[in-house]
Design brief:
A 5-stranded mixed beta sheet has the order 2-3-4-5-6, sandwiched between helices. It has a two-stranded antiparallel ribbon with strand order 1-7. The chain is globular. 45% of the residues lie in helices and 13% in strands. It contains 12 helices and 7 strands. Helix 1 (13-22) crosses helix 2 (27-43). The protein has a single domain (10-240), classed as CRAL-TRIO lipid binding domain (Phosphatidylinositol Transfer Protein Sec14p), CATH 3.40.525. The protein is α/β, with parallel strands linked by helices. One of its GO terms (cellular component) is membrane. Pfam families: CRAL_TRIO.
Amino acid sequence: MAESEELQVGTDDVFLTKFLHYTHWDTIKAYQAIHAYYDFKHKHPSWVARHPIEYYRKIFYGTHCRFVMPHADKNGRVLVIFKTVDAFQQFPDYLQGLIEMDDLIFESLLMLPRVQENGITVICDLQGTTRNFLRQFSPAFMKVVNEKNAVLPFTQRIVHIVQRGFLMHVTSTLFMPFMNKEFKERIFTHDGKNLSKLRDMVGYDCLPEEYGGPACNVLDTNLMYNHLSQNANYLEELQHYEKKKL
């Protein structure tokens, strides 16, 4: 790693162990996974965060659409909530902002030993989907989403899609054809009117109240944003890691 002329990355334990856990401590596969990740970054530079953490404050607190819960799910995975909130008028480059926010969130979660070992559970609440979102979801966009999913070094990523109504079903239908078979097997859909299956799969104690969890479990943007802020120096350093084409 340190002698590579192509990879301009760190060699600290946090960085290396996320790829080692991802490949079950196969050092050759871990090295290949690092190359694959930075090949993606080189090919799609607009699909990773490119600004200091403070730059994203307005969109975090202007949308309240990204959350992390204080307790892990029943399988020990950190639980995060992604909501679709239409803020296209408020933020002219809204979709780009969301792409970069999510990159920051994933990188920050991958710093945590629990996430490196167990992965994450994501609840994607699509109940706020509007036609403004659907206009953004071109086949080319979906293909890049799938490319990034393929290189993110999570040992496991379980996704629960909560949807209700015609537009939400359209959204999940648009995404699914572009997902690889392995990732599709980890995606579960739930009707927003009946969340009993979600509670059974994720666990009651960790769920937010609005998804059937305890009344004390509220969605709080501060938990996510403060986590990013506390790790700002490292996350901003990661933005400079790259793979140079020789």
